[in-house]
């Protein structure tokens, strides 16, 4: 009898994640050893190839058959939904990285005091923080882990690996340094609080169930008695930590500040990839671990979802900065997605419908979001991006193509038919009605109508207003930025007309639900 | 031959071509648009003559799976009601193109002319699609998507308050549409048939409470769209600010989608709920008839006045739809078509006047009749059709609606009939102030209708007079479709007691 059993690691199943983390580590080594002038030319292909490679590995796994048991001793669940989330996160990261390539967005020397001589010097000498590439890779790796963890402890690790690089990245904007640093600080402080909540909640849940394994927590719900208070406190605290990450009200306060202050490519990554990963985690905790507790969390979630939709839609109306407006729009969309999370049903088929709807929504929303932020990066004036809405007046006159594409993205956010956003919303709403959450859907459409107002307001500004005399210039897009915008617009159109193939894919991924 | 798909594809392809015409060559874009719209009209006529009123209910049917995951089909087909409305759209578009020849370039030359005409063609494709759709989801898609081209037409090419009007138009319609979306989803889920095909969903909802909720969702959207009182406030703004051509399509066709939806979807899908809500709808309609007419009398802006007359007319149409008698239903359908022609003519002629004087205010005119007799003459004919003078087309339909309503609801019919009197006041008073009286100084320089304008007005006047004397071809097509609808609603056919006695003797 040898007392210790060696743990098994399914390297094949975990390969996409390992590739990303491996590339991130190589990126750190490049930072340490490669000469300054070579770094970027190593980082860019490394980052792009590793995300693309990881995506190919995900495809391989989908083709060769999805594992039916959790990998790495039950720590990571590589199941259908996880693979779908991975694929989406990797695609979104790839396109976000394409935006990062444009040096214009990142500060020359983050440590220099804003406005000081040192900063100017760094700028003139062409300094650049090539660390952003490994940081992004770590964040992406964290997202992958966060969305697929099968155990609260691993989920926490994923959460931190995802968040810490993002805190840093937020502070690296080239222009409006103070705003960027403020964003970074706020995000870090609030993020740290929410992580603490999550950790504390995890401790309570462990106290109740005697395990941090999601499926064992689920089992314990049926067997352990008399500790309900502990469980409910744990549930509440976990919920706070997770809802913070998706930016649900009343934990949404960080989103506008951070989205506004962060370099726009990083905002694009956060608004798309992080949201996908966070929803993956939310679904795992609430459906897998606490699925049988839905009588307890459902009423709270109803409140949160309604509040999130209304807060996002109403506060967006008062915004005057395009990035802040998109942040509030992202809050409203998180609310729509929460409708899907609430739409559970007693039978597996109903759950699969909701899950597939959420996954489809995340995909289409993520792509459109990256496209929209890509457009934001192109509208510039002397001080960098012209994000104040008044500067966008008459853009449609000056640059009809760009404004037209942006208007199209906005219509997709608003959920107008013949855009992908419509089918995303439709899928979630239909699943919710089928699972008895019709009142939520009514709130959802009402807030959609409110949200439509501020999307349309931007269109009015771009197309129906006279252009300002000293309006912003439209930067000539780099090939990468142009590619991102083209891709996002194409996906938004194609999925707006023929969503069936992707819906099939999402259905297939969702059919077996999460493995336990 | 996939007639309906071709009808939709031709304007879309045309729109792309128009958008691709070289910059600066506006004339080519306009000519191309006109050619495309004439081709669509020719195709529509070719299709319409093949329609057999005694044949299947839906003809020229095409059904393909579109999104099987949601049970959505690309399903199109027309019955008599849809056919006449498609024909209405196809007739109006070339006329609007001709009438809008200079709308996009004159004062705001900075705006792209070809975009305006491309949007017009896209809108035409969607107007045809919305009436042709036999899949409720497809109908919804067109219902919402058609807002976007109209929104840009009002917002980019309209009057001084254009962006306010455009946003108001879009948000009202969108809000109604979104509530309808909930009902659409609900219908799909409750019916549990995994399809959105309209013919299969007739009678699928039996539970009375469910029917009422779903009816409410659909009806609200249609009532905003039509618009019925008290959901009408967007229409005067939108119609007054839109360029005249767009206003014609907005009031003449887009708003018909609302009344068409009531007749097609509300009545047939939710017959019990429709009967339950009939008193409410009739009250709204009657209030709308009287209110629209009275407010119209008080207007000082010609386009707003015409918009308010339309609210009154939509009251008649909704009344006819919900009276649920064969006469009223057929009358309402015929009214949708006639209203499109007569109000279209009024808007366009008002547009000609405004283009000459540069002001929509009635007080700025006077004595037009003496300076430009032709212009004043067609204005009068279009106006008289608006007030339903016998011999002009609207009379037939208004009379049928009133007769049909009186069979069941005598009091509302009598009250509504007073709307006819009020109509005489608002039309004739407007005509008197614009065309009669001493000639205003600026009016003296008016030129009479030129060749292009004559071509715009002549077909409309011909249709108004022709259909006034001989509406039979349209009624032949409409009647079986309306009968069919009422069979689904399961109202027993109303036979006047006196006639029956006569038959018994």
Automatic annotation (TrEMBL), chain A:
Primary enzyme class: translocase
UniProt keywords, alphabetically: Cell membrane, Membrane, NAD, Quinone, Translocase, Transmembrane, Transmembrane helix, Transport
Membrane topology note: Multi-pass membrane protein
InterPro entries given in the database record: NADH-Q_OxRdtase_suN/2, ND/Mrp_TM
GO CC term (a single one): endomembrane system
Gene name for this UniProt entry: nuoN
Reaction equation(s) it catalyzes: a quinone + NADH + 5 H(+)(in) = a quinol + NAD(+) + 4 H(+)(out)
The NADH:quinone oxidoreductase/Mrp antiporter transmembrane domain, residue ranges: 149-450
EC annotation from Swiss-Prot or TrEMBL: 7.1.1.-
Gene Ontology MF annotations: NADH dehydrogenase (quinone) (non-electrogenic) activity; NADH dehydrogenase (ubiquinone) activity; quinone binding
HAMAP family in the record: NDH1_NuoN_1
Family: Belongs to the complex I subunit 2 family.
Role summary: NDH-1 shuttles electrons from NADH, via FMN and iron-sulfur (Fe-S) centers, to quinones in the respiratory chain. The immediate electron acceptor for the enzyme in this species is believed to be a menaquinone. Couples the redox reaction to proton translocation (for every two electrons transferred, four hydrogen ions are translocated across the cytoplasmic membrane), and thus conserves the redox energy in a proton gradient.
Subunit structure: NDH-1 is composed of 14 different subunits. Subunits NuoA, H, J, K, L, M, N constitute the membrane sector of the complex.
Full protein name: NADH-quinone oxidoreductase subunit N
GO BP terms: ATP synthesis coupled electron transport
Compartment annotation: Cell membrane; Endomembrane system; Membrane
Membrane-spanning parts: 12-34, 83-101, 154-175, 187-209, 229-254, 266-287, 299-318, 325-346, 358-379, 400-420, 440-464, 476-498
Domain of life: Bacteria
Organism (species): Nonomuraea dietziae
Principal subcellular localization: membrane
From TrEMBL, chain B:
Cellular component GO terms held in the UniProt record: endomembrane system; membrane
InterPro entries xrefs: NADH_Q_OxRdtase_chainM/4, NADH_UbQ_OxRdtase, ND/Mrp_TM
Keyword annotations of the record: Membrane, Transmembrane, Transmembrane helix
Main location: membrane
Keyword Transcription: no
Entry's transmembrane regions: 6-22, 34-52, 72-101, 113-131, 137-157, 169-191, 211-231, 238-257, 277-298, 305-324, 336-355, 375-397, 409-431, 452-470
Domain NADH:quinone oxidoreductase/Mrp antiporter transmembrane as annotated: residue spans: 133-415
GO biological process, one term: ATP synthesis coupled electron transport
Flavoprotein listed as a keyword: no
GO molecular function, one term: NADH dehydrogenase activity
Subcellular location: Endomembrane system; Membrane
Similarity comment text for this entry: Belongs to the complex I subunit 4 family.
Entry protein name: NADH-quinone oxidoreductase subunit M
Naturally occurring in which organism (per UniProt): Nonomuraea dietziae
């Amino acid at each position: 009898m040898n007392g210790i059993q060696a743990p098994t690691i399914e390297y094949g199943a975990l390969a996409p994640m390992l590739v990303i983390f491996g590339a991130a580590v190589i990126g750190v080594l490049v930072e340490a050893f490669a000469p300054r002038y070579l770094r970027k030319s190593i980082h860019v292909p490394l980052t792009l190839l590793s995300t693309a490679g990881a995506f190919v590995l995900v495809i391989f796994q989908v083709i060769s058959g999805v594992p039916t048991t959790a990998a790495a001793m039950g720590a990571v669940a590589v199941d259908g939904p996880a693979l779908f989330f991975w694929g989406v996160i990797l695609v979104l990261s790839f396109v976000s990285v394409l935006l990062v390539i444009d040096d214009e967005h990142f500060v020359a020397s983050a440590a220099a005091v804003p406005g000081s001589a040192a900063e100017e010097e760094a700028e003139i000498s062409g300094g650049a923080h090539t660390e952003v590439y490994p940081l992004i890779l770590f964040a992406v790796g964290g997202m992958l882990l966060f969305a697929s963890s099968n155990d609260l402890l691993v989920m926490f690790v994923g959460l931190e690996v995802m968040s810490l690089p993002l805190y840093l990245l937020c502070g690296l904007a080239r222009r409006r340094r103070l705003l960027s640093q403020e964003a970074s600080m706020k995000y870090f402080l609030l993020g740290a609080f929410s992580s603490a909540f999550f950790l504390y909640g995890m401790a309570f849940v462990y106290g109740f169930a005697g395990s941090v394994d999601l499926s064992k927590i689920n089992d314990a719900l049926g067997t352990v008695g008399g500790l309900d208070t502990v469980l409910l406190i744990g549930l509440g605290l976990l919920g706070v930590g997770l809802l913070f990450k998706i930016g649900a009200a009343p934990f949404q306060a960080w989103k506008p500040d951070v989205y506004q202050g962060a370099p726009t490519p990083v905002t694009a990554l956060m608004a798309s990839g992080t949201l996908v990963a966070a929803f993956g985690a939310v679904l795992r905790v609430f459906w897998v671990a606490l699925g049988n507790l839905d009588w307890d969390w459902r009423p709270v979630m109803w409140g949160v979802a309604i509040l999130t939709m209304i807060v996002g839609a109403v506060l967006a109306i008062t915004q005057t900065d395009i990035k802040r407006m998109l942040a509030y729009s992202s809050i409203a969309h998180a609310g729509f997605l929460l409708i899907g999370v609430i739409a559970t049903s007693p039978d597996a088929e109903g759950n699969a419908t909701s899950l597939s709807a959420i996954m489809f929504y995340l995909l289409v929303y993520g792509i459109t979001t990256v496209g929209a932020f890509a457009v934001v990066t192109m509208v510039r004036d002397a001080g960098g991006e012209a994000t104040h809405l008044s500067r966008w007046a008459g853009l449609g006159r000056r640059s009809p193509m760009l404004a037209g594409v942006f208007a199209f993205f906005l219509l997709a956010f608003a959920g107008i038919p013949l855009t992908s956003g419509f089918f995303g919303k439709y899928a979630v709403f239909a699943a919710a009605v089928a699972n008895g959450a019709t009142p939520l859907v009514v709130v959802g459409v009402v807030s959609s109508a409110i949200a439509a107002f501020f999307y349309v307001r931007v269109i009015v500004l771009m197309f129906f207003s006279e252009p300002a005399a000293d309006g912003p210039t439209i930067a000539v897009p780099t090939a990468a930025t142009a590619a991102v915008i083209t891709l996002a617009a194409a996906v938004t159109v194609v999925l707006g007309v023929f969503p069936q193939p992707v819906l099939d894919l999402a259905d297939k991924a969702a059919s077996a639900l999460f493995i336990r | 031959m996939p007639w309906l798909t071709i009808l939709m594809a031709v304007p879309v392809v045309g729109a792309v071509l128009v958008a691709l015409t070289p910059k600066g060559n506006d004339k080519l874009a306009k000519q191309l648009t006109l050619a495309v719209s004439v081709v669509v009209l020719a195709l529509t006529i070719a299709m319409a003559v093949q329609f057999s009123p005694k044949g299947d209910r839906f003809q020229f049917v095409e059904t393909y799976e579109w999104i099987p995951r949601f049970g959505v089909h690309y399903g199109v087909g027309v019955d008599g009601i849809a056919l006449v409305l498609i024909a209405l759209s196809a007739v109006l578009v070339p006329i609007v193109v001709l009438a809008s020849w200079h709308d996009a370039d004159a004062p705001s030359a900075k705006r792209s002319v070809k975009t305006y005409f491309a949007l017009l063609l896209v809108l035409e494709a969607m107007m045809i699609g919305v009436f042709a759709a036999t899949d409720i989801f497809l109908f919804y898609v067109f219902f919402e998507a058609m807002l976007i081209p109209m929104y840009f037409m009002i917002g980019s090419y309209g009057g001084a308050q254009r962006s306010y009007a455009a946003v108001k138009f879009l948000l009202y319609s969108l809000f109604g549409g979104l509530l309808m979306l909930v009902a659409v989803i609900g219908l799909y889920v409750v019916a549990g048939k995994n399809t959105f095909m309209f013919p299969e969903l007739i009678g699928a909802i039996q539970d009375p409470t469910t029917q009422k909720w779903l009816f409410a969702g659909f009806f609200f959207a249609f009532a905003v769209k039509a618009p019925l009182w008290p959901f009408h406030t967007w229409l005067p703004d939108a119609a007054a600010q839109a360029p005249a051509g767009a206003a014609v399509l907005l009031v003449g066709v887009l708003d018909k989608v609302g009344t068409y939806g009531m007749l097609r979807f509300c009545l047939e899908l939710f017959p019990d709920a429709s009967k339950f809500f009939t008193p409410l709808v009739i009250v709204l309609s009657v209030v709308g008839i009287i209110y629209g007419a009275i407010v119209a009398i008080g207007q000082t802006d010609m386009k707003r006045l015409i918009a308010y007359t339309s609210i009154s007319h939509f009251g008649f149409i909704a009344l006819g739809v919900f009276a649920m008698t064969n006469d009223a239903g057929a009358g309402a359908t015929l009214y949708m078509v006639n209203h499109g022609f007569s109000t279209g003519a009024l808007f366009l002629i008002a547009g000609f006047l405004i283009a000459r004087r540069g002001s929509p205010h009635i007080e700025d005119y006077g004595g037009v009749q003496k300076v430009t007799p032709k212009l004043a003459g067609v204005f009068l004919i279009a106006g008289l059709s608006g007030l339903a003078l016998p011999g002009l087309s609207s009379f037939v339909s208004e009379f049928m609606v009133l007769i049909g309503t009186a069979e069941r609801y005598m009091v509302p019919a009598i009250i509504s009939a007073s709307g006819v009197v009020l109509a005489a006041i608002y039309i004739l008073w407007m005509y008197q102030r614009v065309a009669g009286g001493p000639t205003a100084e600026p009016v003296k320089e008016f030129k009479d209708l030129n060749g292009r304008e004559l071509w715009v007005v002549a077909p409309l006047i011909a249709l108004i007079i022709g259909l006034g004397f001989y509406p039979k071809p349209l009624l032949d097509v409409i009647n079986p479709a309306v009968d069919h609808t009422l069979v689904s609603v399961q109202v027993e056919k109303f036979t006047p007691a006196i006639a029956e006695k006569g038959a018994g003797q």
